[in-house]
Specification:
There is one protein chain. Helix 6 links the parallel strand 9 and strand 10. The protein is 40% helix and 22% strand. The protein has one domain: UDP-N-acetylmuramoyl-L-alanine:D-glutamate ligase, CATH 3.40.1190. Helix 6 packs parallel to helix 8 and helix 9 (219-226) packs across helix 10. Strands 6-5-1-9-10-11-12-13-14 form a nine-stranded mixed sheet, with helices on both faces. Strands 3-8-7-2-4 form a five-stranded mixed sheet. The longest helix has 16 residues, at 167-182. With 333 residues, the protein is α/β, with parallel strands linked by helices. It starts with a strand and ends with a helix.
Amino acid sequence: MNNYHVYGLGAALVDTEIEVSDQDLEALKVDKGLMTLADSERQQQLLAQLEGHLVAAKRASGGSAANTIIAASYFGANTFYSCKVAADDNGDFYLRDLESAGVHYHRSLSREAGDTGKCLVMITPDAERTMVTYLGISETLSTMELHPEAIASADYLYLEGYLVTSETGRAAAIEAARIARANCTRIAISLSDPGMVQYFRDGLLEMIGEGVDLLFCNRDEALGFTGADSIEQAAERLKQYTRDFAMTLGAEGALVYDGTKAVTVPSKPVTAIDTNGAGDMFAGAFLFAITHGHDYVQAATLANRAAGKVVSQFGPRLAAEQHQEVLETAMPA
């Protein structure tokens, strides 16, 4: 029997989430709705300009794949996460948060001096999230942080598309996928962000390699990645890269393909106030469900409900007890 349901690989970022206006984003010269990489100086400059907004700022451990793995863990999956944090206060905070969520990590790795990565998440009144990320030590995430035995014993390896922005991170993703294929561990990847698709498509193709088992994306990422003019065309083209896929469609739910048939699974209407983490939550719930005997329609039903819950409140995560509530309503016994 496998030890882990899901093994994740991605950046370790401590999030600071702030409410802003569209005018703030224009004044800051930040592209709305995308993730932009920045150095520490630029991030500090933005924080200084937003000083009046910081009253409601909250610190939380994040990073796309981490949000997914933590969600899967809270739903009941046995999980492992590989990342890189520095020997600093944020690094201590981050690992404590992983531990409290029941996520296993590589305890024997020594931590280097430097900065644990930070992400400034700006939420506009239309619930759109805009991110400025200083990767810090996460930029040097490499094959050294991999745990081959844990990958080999997992049902799924989950890779975040953001790894494509780092030479060593991309190499780690490719090596993790090689280990997974050699040990019959299925590979799941998320395209993560329209910006990754637009600017790093070749690197994403490298990470996908000879093909993956499951690909997560949203509508914009699917259209951008495949160069398609419609959802139907994008769905058809995705099949050359992946055996199965789950494409989120916002308020319309999700289009899932299990290798045999494509089905649109509707979602219940919610009032969105913060879309940060919606895709991560969807992937975490979906991976939990398919590693616990549920089919893709059932998995998407749970994932839609979980993503709907997370966008109806601030922050990319749900409280521990909320996962059980979502599970009981989406999958009644």
